[in-house]
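Sequence in, structure out. First:
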Amino acid sequence: MNLSYYFCTHNYSFIRMKKIYLIPAALVICIAIIQACTKLQPAAPADDEILDGPVAGLSYDQNRQFLAGDVAFNDEIFTTQTGLGSIFVATSCGSCHAGDGKGHPFTTLTRFGQADSTGNQFLHLGGPQLQNRALPGFMPEQIPAGATFSKFTPPATTGLGFLELVSDNDILAMADPFDLDADGISGVPNWIALPSFITPFINALPQNGRYIHRFGKKAAAYNLLHQTVNAYNQDIGITSTFSPKDVYTGLDIDPEVSNLTINNVVFYLQTLKAPIQRNQNNPEVIQGKNLFIQAGCESCHKQSLKTAFSNIEPLSNKIFYPYTDLLLHDMGPGLDDGYTEGNAKTSEWRTPPLWGLGLSPNSQGGQFFLMHDGRAKSIDEAIQMHGGEATSSKNKFNQMTTSEKNAILKFLKSL
């Protein structure tokens, strides 16, 4: 017998036999480990418990662009090597909008320099935004003597694409500048001239060369491109072809962020999903919603709006539920900071959308920081700060029973 052949063939049979029995055993062990690890992982949050994520129905290419914008918005942290500063407020977009939610007092911005509709008188001294941080060797800005200012807490970014697509015609239909219906509510748009890099919406209805703006605490930004370009420049000190002026020197410099990145971030903001209301069928939530409407709160916090046509099909001609009218309202002397933007009065503020309100503590350190500057530490406290056009609704709320008030608060926390 050929012993070499014998040992080789039998050894191969032995090895093959070991493979037959060892491979399944290894698979069993791996599966057991994976299952054990899975049990240790927290369950994925429900879709209505988070604000981030794309609107349903995007195409493959649109999802890719959304993800590219997500990375630029949430993961890219600017440094001196990539253009940060020399003075700035934040080092990334996501640092002010954690989980696409509201900001915290630590990330609250300071804007200064305009006391009336004649425009900002302190642009040559760093206005309209205070860059309160600086790289080593540089001094952060100080508010110039004589400049009025206001604190702005960063808003949630979710659902913005829907708000961008509300037509001027629909916004004007909600406006009542002369309070013709005598309900005490006289919402008005903020009409402002466009920057050179902005193209008006197809359905825009200009007035004396000015256009309806809709984003920001005073509705001073026209669209999400306008908002994004301003945020890069004024919050992070990053220049672009759209806004090439360096916030420290005041000189035009080479772009520090590409048009591609800007456009990806804009698309990301446009296609973030709308917040999903929770516990919609809860009897107390339903009662609270009805009481909210009866108190007149919906006069400004409009329950439903609709979008116009969009090339992004999931956003086109859709009804959505933001609880805002995108208009300016006089909120009384208690909320008059002496600062304004565009043609808004110092006591006028754009109605903030209420959707996502109940999830605000998730990005605010576990508690509420509400109103334009985060001064209210609860929803009830925010209601009590409503004055001016909202006085009647506040008084109706205060006249309700404790159970009725709690129903309204539960409804608001469900949004």
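Second:
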Amino acid sequence: MIDYSWLLVIIAYCIGSICSAIVVCRVMGLPDPREQGSGNPGATNVMRFGGKKAAAITLLGDLFKGLLPVLVGQFVGLPSVFVAGLGAAAFLGHLYPIFFGFKGGKGVATSVGVLLGFSWQLGILVIATWLLVYKLSKISSLSALIASVLSSGFAWWLGMSEAIIYASLMMTVFLLWRHQANIKRLLAGQEK
């Protein structure tokens, strides 16, 4: 019998590589998000020039492409390590999309989708953390970074597998890396 697990990981990466921001902007007749605002193809940047509707659709698209591969992996009964691999692959596809010259977004919404797929409780804890920090600070990047940093701790607290905890930690490392400019502005008190 052929093992299709690795094929699913490749498919997960390809799903992650579909850039929701670019697709939404093309369909809605908006400018390319890579050439507007911050240049980041993500929901926050799309909202700057495309409005709330375009941003919401982008956010849901990015979230769904992280969620779908994980749910498929669980549905077909893959071991936890492969389910974690599917989530990681979708996330990395968003950051380094094969269809867009390996230049993607920062990965916040896609990581939340992956975490929701791992466990709805884990996803809710991360979303609640983001909302709480945003309510207190009104800074989206700070909210995302704190929620991400706590995600692997939440996964451990919920008793999830090591593979899931490590996948959460890996996503946090990449999110911190992709938010270097935001972190510098936060430290300088200049982040909007």
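Remark: Residues 96 and 102 are 4 Å apart (CA to CA).
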